[in-house]
Each structure stands twice: as C-alpha cells, then as structure tokens.
Amino acid sequence: MANKASSSSLPSINEDAASVDEVPLYGSESGWVEARTHCDHLASLSQDLTHIPTPDTQCNRCQHPDENWLCLCCKDVLCSRFVNKHMLEHYQQSDHCLALSYSDLSVWCFSCDAYLDAQVILSLRPAYEIAYFLKFGEAPPLRS
Ligand SMILES: [Zn+2]
Ligand SMILES: [Zn+2]
Ligand SMILES: [Zn+2]
Question: Tens of pLDDT along 3-28?
Fold first, then answer.
C-alpha cells in the first residue's frame, strides 16, 4: 500500500460512469483478500441474525442515509468512520466489536482489528446472506 501514488497506467474511461456503485464487492483493498477465518469474539453475536434492518437504514444517531454498518451484536445501524464514526463510538462504548458493512457486506471485528470471512465463519454466514439478499435481491454466489 506504500506505492499508491503510481496509478497513472490506468486509463480514465470511467468519467461518464460516475453513477455506478463506487464500492466494488471484492475490491483489491476491501480487505476480503486477507479476511480472517477465525475470531474469538463471536460469542457476542446477536442470537437472531435472520432478522436484520435493511441496507438503506439510516444511522441511528445522525440519520446518515447509506453505507452504514450493522452491529452484529445488537443490530443497531450506525455510520462509518468516514462519516461520523458512530459505529466506532458504539464499539468503544458498548464493546460490540462485530459489524457488517452495508456498503460492501464485509464483516469487521474491531477487537481483532481485521475483516472476517463471513462465508467461512458459519455463525456469520446467515447475516451475510440475508444482508446480501436485502441489498441485491438475490442469494449470494456460492463459494466452496
Ligand atoms: Zn452516524
Ligand atoms: Zn451493538
Ligand atoms: Zn474478533
């Protein structure tokens, strides 16, 4: 990540396509590549992750409209560290460390300080699959 500045080889053909989703599902820097398959904090997960708020739910505190995070412990929806950091604040105040991003459906553990692989970690999979369905209207592609 140190040599980020040298991206001049990419042609900028996307200038008139600004309305496509800005966040690629498996972007090279999204963290999926290095997502952990193990986390010691899964005991704090909500018992019922089959009923979760929809991806267009506003931040509970500042009403930020999109790309919020879902707390997987209490199912609060809170904005990201790039908005008003309400998810981060929530973690610091409540110790709820597991959150799912409604922008790219990645799962972050604040305590591990790492992304988690929600398709490999079985207790995360229902939340991931339902969030995916709510966002895209179809089941996620299966990975073996
Ligand atoms: Zn907020
Ligand atoms: Zn919470
Ligand atoms: Zn963890």
Answer: 444 444 545 444 444 444 444 444 44
Residue with tokens 């704090």, as numbered in its chain: 44
Specify the CATH number for 38-135; select among 3.30.40.10, 3.40.640.10, 3.40.50.10860, 3.60.15.10: 3.30.40.10
CA-derived radius of gyration, the chain: 16
Give me 91's structure tokens.
């973690």
Using the Cα atoms of residue 47, residue 72, residue 76 and residue 137 in order, give the sign of their dihedral: negative
**Nearest ligand (C-alpha, residue 71):** 2
Ligand closest to the CA atom of residue 83: 1
**Span from the CA of 98 to the centroid of ligand 3 (angstroms):** 7
Cα of 134 vs centre of ligand 2, distance in Å, is: 20
> Per-residue pLDDT tens for 79-93?
999 999 999 999 999
Between the CA of 109 and the centroid of ligand 3 the distance, in Å, is 5
